[in-house]
């Protein structure tokens, strides 16, 4: 059976994305250029681009053109995989950019203090990072780490995988108590994620480690994902 003309265009563009000729954010040839290249009608080209747009491979912006879209990661609500692991699964290079870091008393964050079973005078490492996939902003993470367990942090490592850093310190861990919610971003989050009023998917969890044979909570993490790049499947 002869292959449909619009499928030929779809496969051509998908091949460019798969072999790296086109990366996330790159602009695709215009309808007119593709029409001339394949000697197909503009209607056929439009159909191909619409199919790719609906499938999430590209994003069509009226008046600007078509661009390679950031892959959407469909994460199970019971999954506790890290951001770096999520990015690896969809073929993107995970990145981190430290936005702010400070060490404060647990009394500054009463809710976090209670989740980590800390006293008011115990210290917490508090840092915010922009998380990226192939240098595209995807999420913002807010981490609160007990200094009782991690006494000092090499902040140069926070521009990489924090959990990879914990691995290098020999700190074993397990994530529990995951919760999901959604809300609109504030102005700062809009700026960091380069979005307007796209809803954020917010995932929180408490991380535990073993101390003298018992599980001790030592980290609370809140990650705010760009809703255009992440979706959760509830199991």
Describe the structure concisely:
The chain is an alpha+beta fold.
Quickly count the helices: 7
Helix/strand structural class: alpha+beta
Q: Which CATH C-level class of the largest domain is it?
A: Alpha Beta
State the strand order across the main sheet. Answer: 4-5-6-9-8-7
Distance from first to last alpha carbon: 40 Å
Given as residue ranges, the uncertain stretches (5+ residues, pLDDT < 50) are none
- Count of beta strands: 10
Helices and strands, in order, run as HHHEEEHEHEEHEHEEE
Morphology call: elongated
Summed up, the domain count is: 2
Helix content: 25-40%
Strand coverage percent: 35-45%
* CATH homology group of the largest domain: Chorismate lyase-like
Outline the biggest β-sheet. Answer: 6 strands, antiparallel
What is the CATH topology of the largest domain? Chorismate lyase
Mean pLDDT score, rounded? 87
The name of the CATH architecture of the largest domain is: 3-Layer(aba) Sandwich
SSE inventory with pairings:
Elements: H1 5-18, H2 31-38, H3 42-54, E1 58-61, E2 65-68, E3 73-76, H4 83-89, E4 94-105, H5 110-115, E5 123-133, E6 136-146, H6 162-168, E7 174-183, H7 187-193, E8 200-211, E9 214-226, E10 230-233
Parallel strand pairs: 3-10
Antiparallel strand pairs: 1-2, 4-5, 5-6, 6-9, 7-8, 8-9
Helix pairs in contact: 1-3, 2-3
What key attributes describe this structure?
235 residues, alpha+beta, Arc Repressor Mutant, subunit A, Chorismate lyase, 6-stranded antiparallel beta sheet, two-stranded antiparallel sheet, 26% helix
């Amino acid at each position: 059976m002869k292959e449909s003309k619009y499928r030929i265009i779809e496969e051509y563009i998908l091949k460019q994305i798969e072999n790296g000729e086109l990366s996330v954010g790159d602009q695709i040839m215009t309808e007119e250029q593709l029409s001339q290249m394949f000697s197909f009608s503009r209607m056929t080209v439009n159909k191909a681009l619409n199919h790719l747009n609906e499938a999430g491979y590209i994003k069509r912006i009226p008046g600007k053109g078509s661009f390679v879209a950031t892959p959407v990661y469909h994460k199970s609500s019971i999954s506790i995989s890290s951001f770096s692991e999520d990015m690896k699964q969809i073929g993107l290079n995970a990145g981190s950019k430290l936005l702010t870091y400070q060490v404060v008393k647990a009394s500054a964050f009463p809710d976090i203090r209670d989740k980590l079973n800390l006293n008011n005078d115990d210290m917490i490492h508090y840092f915010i990072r922009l998380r990226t996939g192939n240098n595209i902003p995807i999420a913002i993470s807010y981490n609160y780490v007990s200094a009782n367990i991690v006494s000092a942090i090499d902040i140069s490592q926070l521009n990489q995988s924090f959990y990879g850093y914990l691995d290098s310190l020999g700190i074993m861990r397990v994530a529990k108590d995951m919760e999901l919610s959604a809300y609109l971003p504030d102005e700062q989050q809009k700026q960091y994620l380069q979005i307007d009023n796209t809803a954020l998917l917010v995932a929180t969890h408490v991380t535990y480690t073993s101390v003298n044979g018992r599980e001790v909570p030592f980290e609370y993490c809140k990650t705010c994902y760009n809703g255009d790049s992440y979706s959760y499947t509830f199991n």
